[in-house]
Amino acid sequence: RRRVLEASQHLTEIINSETITESPEPSREEEPAAEEESGLHCLWVDKFTPRSYLELLSDDYTNRCLLKWLKLWDTVVFGKEKAVKKAKSSAEARPPIHQPKEQQNKWKTKVQLTEEILEAELDQHKRPKYKVALLCGPPGLGKTTLAHVIAKHAGYNAVEMNASDDRSPEVFKTRIEAATQMKSVLGANEKPNCLIIDEIDGAPAASINVLLNIINRKDAEGEAAAGAGRRRRREGGLLLRPIICICNDQ
């Protein structure tokens, strides 16, 4: 009986010592192996791609202009009223005596002039004056990454399509209308779409005309004829979502 108890105690000590010494080692070996395996199947540009606005390395002036333009859609998309700047005091608003008004406008920075253009009054449907943004530049500059990050930062669901793939104008029109008119439902989070059209310089002229017709589509409220109403339903409604186009050759 004594021998059996000693043997069982010895066996228990061996089992405990093996589990303590060997159990941490496989976990340490498996984690780097799993990371290495996932790293082998992940592109370097995907692994280190910017995830937020602050991680963007592209031109800050371009980033700010695109974000400012996208925020102009907040009134019609999210129902947010446009922020009104506080009026300056009389001392601040009065121009210096030694500097004429023409010279003040002449020496405005590029950022100030662009912001004044973008801050133009919204149209009757509370949409910005310019309905489409066009990003131009050589390949690898970060145009598509910029569009996705800015859209996500502004609260949109980025929907990307390649204009050179959809050569048929009918397919091109269907995809644009589906992205700009239908809602995207992702579980409990419902976000409006922001359409990103890549390689717009590779699209045929017929597809460009389709895009222009969608952009310039007007709301004919005064038309009361039945034929006009049917045509309006067939053509679709107003463009109420932002579109960002990307090209290499402007």
Q: What report would you give on this structure?
A:
- The chain is built from twelve helices and six strands.
- The chain is of the alpha/beta class.
- It has a domain of 152 residues: Rossmann fold (3-Layer(aba) Sandwich), CATH 3.40.50.300.
- A four-stranded parallel β-sheet has the order 1-6-5-2, with helices on both faces. The protein has a two-stranded antiparallel sheet with strand order 3-4.
- A hairpin with a 2-residue loop joins strand 3 and strand 4.
- Helix 4 crosses helix 9.
- The chain is elongated.
- It comes from Syrrhaptes paradoxus (Pallas's sandgrouse).
- Belongs to the activator 1 small subunits family. CTF18 subfamily.
- One of its GO terms (cellular component) is nucleus.
Please outline what is shown here:
The chain is an alpha/beta fold. The protein has twelve helices and six strands. It has a domain of 152 residues: P-loop containing nucleotide triphosphate hydrolases (Rossmann fold, 3-Layer(aba) Sandwich).
